[in-house]
Write a structure and sequence with these properties.
Elements: H1 3-13, H2 15-18, H3 21-28, H4 30-41, H5 45-89, H6 106-109, H7 123-126, H8 131-137, H9 142-153, H10 158-164, H11 169-197
């Protein structure tokens, strides 16, 4: 049996295990695949230990990325819950109906002279204590920051934001998703580089 047949036989034998997403990700790296092939062709303890060590590093990276991803997700959830609680306990007087018209709230009677001019309110950044998250947020575009501010700080719906920015709710949703993905990527890379140095 030649080398290629040995490798093919190994992958046939462990076909189900190789389909596992973590193992698939591990083998997507050429260096890791090369280490495994060396072990298949020459199954010594030294080669086995090299594969084990590389897999442990890969697995730890996956766990760290998952951890950061969960951190971002739960941070946004907690932030949203906190803001909703504050808004429920401290209602604006302007939300009450007008004494002249019971159906119209007072805020609708106030003329907004700057209706077209919506700028970023930096309260979102002011309320965040994590310097790493603030730095990551500062890498976003002004529009992305504005959308995050309107969603998480002002608690506007996608439809309301789309009316303000004169675009579609789908576009706002895409920008929101891209912003969170970029934050996740930046924070993941930061954690990865920190642990790679150690």
């Amino acid at each position: 049996m030649n080398n290629e047949e040995k490798i093919a036989e190994f992958f046939r034998k462990y076909r189900d295990k190789v389909q596992n997403p973590i193992i698939k990700g591990f083998l997507a790296n050429e260096d890791n695949l090369s280490l495994l092939k060396k072990y298949i062709l020459n199954p010594t303890d030294a080669n086995k230990n090299k594969v084990d060590k590389a897999f442990k590093q890969h697995y730890n990276r996956v766990l760290k990325i998952k951890y950061v991803s969960n951190l971002i997700y739960f941070f946004t959830m907690d932030y949203n819950i906190k803001r909703r609680k504050e808004n429920d306990t401290v209602l604006l007087i302007l939300d009450k109906s007008s004494e002249y018209d019971a159906r119209t709230p007072l805020k609708d009677l106030i003329e907004d002279k700057n209706e077209e001019k919506h700028t970023l309110n930096r309260n979102l950044l002011d309320d965040i204590e994590s310097e790493r998250l603030i730095k990551a947020l500062q890498t976003l575009t002004e529009k992305q920051l504005l959308i995050l501010d309107l969603i998480y700080h002002k608690q506007l719906t996608l439809k309301e934001i789309s009316e303000i920015l004169k675009t579609t709710p789908q576009n706002i949703s895409n920008l929101h998703r891209k912003s969170l993905k970029k934050l996740n990527q930046i924070l993941s890379e930061e954690v990865k580089s920190k642990y790679d140095k150690e």
